[in-house]
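Hey, quick one: can you model this chain's 3D structure?
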Amino acid sequence: MELTLLGTGAPEGLPRPACPCSSCATALGEDARAATALLVDGTLLLDLTPGAAFAAARAGHTLGGVRQVLLSHPHDGPAVEVPAGLPQPVRVPDGSELTLLTGHRVRAVPMDAPGTGYAVTGPDGTRLLYLPPGAAPAGLDDDGGSYAMVAADVVGRPDALARLRAVGAVGPTTDVIAVHLDHEVPPGPELRRRLAAAGARAVPDGTTLDVGVYEDVPDVPRRTLVLGGARSGKSVEAERRLESFPNVLYVATGGTRSGDNEWASRVSAHRERRPGSWRTTETCDLVPLLAEEGPPLLVDCLSLWLTDAMDSVNAWDDAEWAGGGERALRARVEELTAAVRATRRTLVAVSNEVGSGIVPATASGRRYRDELGRLNAGFGAECEHLLLVVAGQALSLRG
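Sure thing. Here's the predicted structure for all 399 residues.
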């Protein structure tokens, strides 16, 4: 089955008309995108958009062989003119199935927002799933295994991908193509970086893909360390890296602080950002979690883990530190880094980068700064991907 992406942008396209934002200003060349429309084997058109016939011609195709036009979402604005010879576009009722004379079967998948998803099975048996913008599946009632390709709003609704992964509809060999791309994420390297973390990719308008060819599926890093200063956006970046995966275990190392309203508001803000399918545990005992099989782990953060570890060896007392506390802490850190090296789980960890700031005024503060630097270096050495977040922007240091 062959898929041609006549457009890959949001309903208003990218750049948006008259939008002054930086993303729209830089959406040039192959980063400029028309509204999403998909042509399957030259016979099935998913979403009719202005200029679809010209887009097909530029991609070396024609709409002359289209036998069915299906709409996936309400189209705002003026009605789109149907090119001569094309059948009238229709929306298929949820759960209904069409069988085309060309041998394609199309099933309408219900969404949790206005729109309809379409599961397409080609004459050769390969399976494609197309989802509308801003929507996630409300239910998948088939047990056909994973799709060969999924075209979805990965940036706007990463939880849709998580739901598909949870039921096995997206597997390790599924080629996930991001469509309905809007201006929330700057085009180019930043978009590619974010999509790769979700195991997805974007392609230019006019690209033709063979459904079922897997060599371009991104390899999602298994271990990632996200560093950054205070309020740099490091926790948001770490959460973003796992928001398209189901059943994530969020490991909060800070615990609760009775009577500290400012800390309580921070914890509440973190909880509100997390997807509903995630679970939370409050612990600094990371080694057993890393040794277990299970869903991805998000550890936030290592700096609080270190505080707990230093408390446990009374590292703040010079005599205790010299008398065995330093050796005990080193052993704790080595045990943790060894567990990171051996883990089979997907892991994203957050830590503070404090070595570039003001030199602490106290000996205990300098000790903590030095030990956190050593911990970050040792932990980061075991990770395939290392990021530094500055002013909300993630800089890749490795991977």
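One thing worth noting: The chain is about 30% helix and 20% strand.
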